Structures are given as C-alpha cells and as structure tokens.
Amino acid sequence: MPEQQQTKKRRRRPRRGGARAATLLLAYAALAMERADAALLPAVYREIGAALRASPSALGSIALSRSVVQAACYPLAAYLAARHDRLTVVALGAFLWAAATLLIAMAVTAALNGVGLALQIPAIYAFVADSVDGTSRGVAFGWLMVAGKVGTVGGTSLGLLMAPTSFLGIPGWRLAFLLLAAAGAVVGVSIRSFAAGNDAAAAAAASTTTTAKPVRQELQEFAREAKAVLRVPSFQVMVAQGLTGSFPWSALSFTAMWLELVGFSHGETAALMALFKVATSLGALLGGKMGDAMARRFKNSGRIVLAQVSSGSAVPLAAVLLLALPGNPPAAAKHGAALFALGLMASWNPSSTNGPILAEIVPPRSRTSVYALDRTCEAVLASFAPTVVGVLAERLYGYDLAGGAAVEAERRNAASLARALYTAIAVPMVLCCLIYSFLYCTYPRDREAAARAEAAVAARGDGGARPDGGEGSDTEDEGEDERKLLPQ
C-alpha cells in the first residue's frame, strides 16, 4: 500500500522539473513587478499632492479609481485562462499595466492600470497552486509573497529616492513611473518568449485550438462555474474575512506619507519601509512553513489557528507603532523595531492559510476562477481604504492641508493620520480574526468534497486541467456537469 501511494505521488509530480522551476521564477518576477507598480503611487503621494494641490482624500481617490477597475476586471482573468495558458495571460497583464503606468507618468489616468494588474494576479496564484502539492503549498505561496515584497520594496524605494530629484526639468516622480513602465514591458516580453518556447505551453495551446468553443458557450460555462464557486461555504467565509483583512493593508499605503510627516527624511523613510517589507517577507515565509507543518499535524484546524494568531496580533502591534511611540523627535530605531514586529507577525495569512485553503476547496480546473472571484470581492472594499483613511484624517482627526509645511503643522497632521490609520487597521482586523472561526466548520467538509469531485473526474477521464496550469475541458458536456465538479 505505501508503495502504491508513492507511485501515485510520483505520477502527480510535474515532469520537466527545470522548465517548471523556470516558469515559477517567471511567475514570481511578474508578481514582483506588479507589486512594485502598486507601491510606487503611494510612495510619491506627498509629491503628487504638492504638484496637484491634492488632499489625502483626493490622493486616496486616485488609488480608488485603479482599484475599482482592477476589481471589475478580475473575472476577465478567469475567462482568459479558460482559452489560453496562464503564462500567456500573465504576459498580457504585464504589457497592459506597463502601458498604463506610462499614462500615469503623463498624468493621464491611473484607472487603466487596474486592467493589467487584474489579469496577472489570479493566473499567477493558480499557476503556483498547480505547480506544487498540498504538503508544500504554503512554502510556495510564502516565496510568492517574498517576490511580491521585493517588488514592493523596489517600487517604494524607487519612488521615495527619485521624488526629490529631477532630470531635464522632469520631476522625479514622473521619471519613476517611466522607468517602471519600461521594466514591466521587459518582464512581459520575457514571459511571452518563454511561454512561446515552452513545450508544455505549446501543448496547451494546441489543446485549446482543438477544443475551441464559441465565445458565448464559454461565457455561459464560466458563469456556471462562478456560481458553483460562490456556493462553496468556505469560499464565502474566505471572502468575508478578505473583505475585512485586506482593508488594513490597503490603508497602510499612507505609511510612507505618515513617516515623512513625523519627521523622517526621504532616505530614512525608504529605509524604514524597506525594513517593514523585509519583515513581511520573512513573516510570509515563516507563515507558509508553519502552515504546512500545522496542516500535517492538525489537518482541519492548523492553518486556521495561525490565521487568527496573525490577524489578532496586528491590533496591539499597530497601536504601539501609531499611537504609543513618541514622534518629536522621531526615533528611527524604535519606529523600525515596531514596523519589523508588525510586519513579521501580521503577514502570515496569505501563505499559511488563504492561498492553500482556496486551492483545496475547489478542483484544480477551477483554481483561476476561485482566485479571481476572491480577489474581486476583496478588492471592492479594500479599494476604498485609502479614501476612508483620508476622510477620517481630515474630517474626524483634524488633518489640515492648509496648515502649510511648518514643522508644527506637519506633526499635528502626522498625529491625525496615525489615528486614522489605526482606526482603519484595528477594527477590520478584529472582525477578520473572528470571521476565520467559521472555517472550523466549513473547511474540512469542503476540502473533502473537492477531493471527491477531483477523483470522480479523474476516474471518468473527462476534463482535467490542461498542461502548464491552463484550464479547459475535453468534453462538450463540461458545463452541464459543473455541479458535479464542485462541492455543494
């Protein structure tokens, strides 16, 4: 019996390990660039605000426009993944957001940037979930989070360090967007070139060609699959916690602005933000490793416990950082230690719990859909976080844009922004921690139902996943059997 299990495990391992590792690295690189793009705008909020005379709420509205478009376009990623392999979808997303980033540099719009970002994220997450087995999925998502944090550090540092400079009369913040757009285009070309020359991607493309269906039929099948995913109880819980849990992280986009108002220079702020991202990277890796270990020992509850510990710890740690530390004069060591502790403890959930559980509660062929729908629902509320922080700071806590650049005025504004940030962190995190409790009831049942559905599909041999993580079906009655492929 053990020999049979080992044989099955060997069969499930992807062939062409070198090619699989290379595609994983490209997926990580794509996410790093996406995170760099998302981090660049908040890093230069102060300069954009000064150039355009924009208040914090107006700056939050810039991010809101991009986030709303991004949330609306997430389902497009799931649909495209049904017609193309995932690396092609990722490359397309890279091209689109690179072009949109160029428009931001020209002060045209930030909203179009959300289209490219929306295409990439679900396809990347689904590809990573398909590339590893369940026993090491947390570590794989941990490294994905590390790649994202590297991109965030790069984008934040690029913005903060270039903001006070200029070249040929062009402000530094505009140059930063231009450089990032060029880098994104290079990544897109690299991914597309590799996907075109990859044997597995070519096989997937050939499979798609031979089983192509009318667009209307594929849209109907996608709608049926989306409805089936939305009926999974654990998915509903994950969306509910995501609505609250992603809000604080979006609100933290004002951290760099707050540090500068406290009195730190551009260089010091860049160093502190880099330290925070290093801490969140280590936390993601630590969370992924602990999640895999806890899942092996406590199959039904291990990942959930870690999520509650992580989200619960954010409340007191954020209070120390934003409310307890003295701001006059600012102490880099104390702020750095508080940022490191917050980043290390509050960043477990995506790798330890969210990513692995979403991969387990639906069959493999539905993973792009589940990640796309999850991101859609979460991003709707999270997209309002910067605007909410800006409104709280101005209307409730006394942030005064007309106060000028005097030191006393900036310190008062820093205190107002800190209180607004803590409100936007503490309340959602408490709710997030409580909502995770429902997974103790739903997760074991949904995981087993998805495993049974996958086994039934494998036994019939009618509609597994395409090579290289693409989705699709080999039968004409796939849509009619959708209810059998997902837990009820």
Automatic annotation (TrEMBL):
Looking up Pfam families in the UniProt record yields: MFS_1
Instruction: List keywords of the entry alphabetically.
Output: Membrane, Signal, Transmembrane, Transmembrane helix, Transport
Query: What protein name does the entry list?
Result: Major facilitator superfamily (MFS) profile domain-containing protein
- Spell out the subcellular localization from the entry: Membrane
Q: Where is this region: Disordered?
A: 458-488
Q: Where is the composition biased (Acidic residues)?
A: 471-480
Report the InterPro entries cross-referenced here: MFS, MFS_spinster-like, MFS_trans_sf
* Family as reported in the entry's similarity comment: Belongs to the major facilitator superfamily. Spinster (TC 2.A.1.49) family.
Q: Does the keyword Membrane apply?
A: yes
Which top-level group of life is the source organism from?
Answer: Eukaryota
